[in-house]
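Hello K.,

You asked for the raw outputs rather than the summary table, so here they are, unedited. I folded two proteins back to back in the same session to keep the settings identical. This is the first:
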Amino acid sequence: IQQQDAAEDIVIAGAGLAGLAVALGLHRKGVRSVVLESSPERRTSGFAFFTWTNAFRALDALGVGDKMRGRHLQLQGLRVMTSSTGEIAREMDLRVNGKLGPHEVRCVQRNVLLQALEEELPPGTVRYSSKIVSIDDQDGAKILHIADGSTLRAKVLIGCDGINSVVAKWLGLAKPSESGRTATRGYAKYPEGHGFEPKILQFVGEGFRAGLVPWSDTDVYWFFTWSPAPSPDANGKDDDAVDRSAAAMKQFVLTKMTGAKVSPEVLEAVERSEMSDVLAAPLRFRSPLSLLFASISKGNVCVAGDALHPTTPDLAQGACTALEDGVVLARCLGDAIVGAGSGEQKERVVAALRRYAGIRRWRSAQVIAVSYAVGFVQESDHSVVSFVRDMLLSGVLAKTLLMMPDYDCDTYEVHHITM
């Protein structure tokens, strides 16, 4: 992107899950795009994420579903434990039939999926070290100013540039809100085998929410979310402060878990863990109400993934809905471009992005709102909330986990992304 007049028809900002899914979906339809990624190389943060039924439907549409199935265990069940007592609050089979067929969930390594998506794209599609710093409008095209001083002219701009999206800001979307909660995560390696069942083990209550899940016979992923105390201690430091080393963060998690009734094998997994390169991160979300009226698309610009619907992780749907976005957007945009005559492409693209926004608006707001509510109830140590959760809501909350994946992004757009 060195010369001033460099131009591309479709530019995607961000080579995360949403960006690569859009690019691959377009490629499957014979439509070329360029992906600008701010990082110098493929992203590795995050370790792993839950890939539910809806995400596998999206991955199958993109042609990489079986690659992920071959490398990650299918999880058979969910066991929810009450942190205050160590008792099982709920057991659930994760292979039951939903409205659209049997459910499927695996814990998938983020870097493995990103690599699989990128490998399916033509060489040179992803341009690293290409951070967009500002956007100008010129005769309907978007002039993208890159951090290295170069510019790129784009006929269509798709923002998949994450929670701090430059494109979302340009569209005027509401700034993500703080949830008042923080998350950390890690993974443990057991060269001789870990011995955990292929199940999600989750702990709720006592002011935190934690979980452990195997992604293979030798690897285990865990997460821990909590609400840092607002008041500092006598030394002026917040006891729950997050600006700590990996060792200190690990000790913080172990202390919190040890004070509750978390099983010894889970404590051991945390003890032997490699910590994420993001030691602790505040959980943010975009107001679901604001999304119902926001400009998700404007002319030849739109957003997808975390740039559209940053959400708390309590339904484990952030990555899954990003993949849904990618399939739906590629279908809408690809069909508009492939079927367009020479003079009508611009209008068809605008209509396609508007159609995509209409399809994804309610789904995005729903996932954010339900996830936030589930996280509040599961993490709370308030006695009344805890009682209602443990006695009445555990079944409802568990079933909500299966309600959101019972969705097929392809049903909105015919049936498969093909050339």
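The second followed immediately with the same parameters:
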Amino acid sequence: MTTATTLGDAVFSLNMTRGEDFLYKSSGAIVAAIVVVVIIIVTLVLILLKMYNRRMRARRELEPKSPKPPVPPPLDPNSNGSQQPATVTFSPANTQAETR
């Protein structure tokens, strides 16, 4: 009776080993399938973005361009209608490096 149980355990272990081997061998195919699916999804997203970009560019090019509204002159109570250019004063920072 003990031999039959041992024989039964041996058959059970062989079946488990075969199942594990099957999973181990098929795991490479599973990973490859996942990689292929991810590549296909990324490719589809890029194609959709490219089509969307083309459509938006065509729509922008076909729209009539509105003229820029004229910029009103700055309201300055001291100016008597004479245009004076704005002056900008630039003061450079101290660029000398301190030596030790």
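Residues 2-62 form the longest helix (61 residues).

Happy to rerun anything if the numbers look odd on your end.

Regards,
P.
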